[in-house]
Amino acid sequence: MNDDDWVVLGQVGKLFGVKGWVKVRAFTEERGAILQHRHFRGEKNGVFSKLEIDTFRVQPNGLVVKFKDFDDPESAADIVGATLSIQAKELPALEDDEFYWHQLIGLRIRNLQSEDLGVLKKILQTGANDVIVVKPDDCSLDDRERLIPWVKGEVIKSIDVEKGELLVSWLSDYLE
Question: In the chain, what are the domain boundaries?
Answer without folding.
Answer: 3-89, 101-168
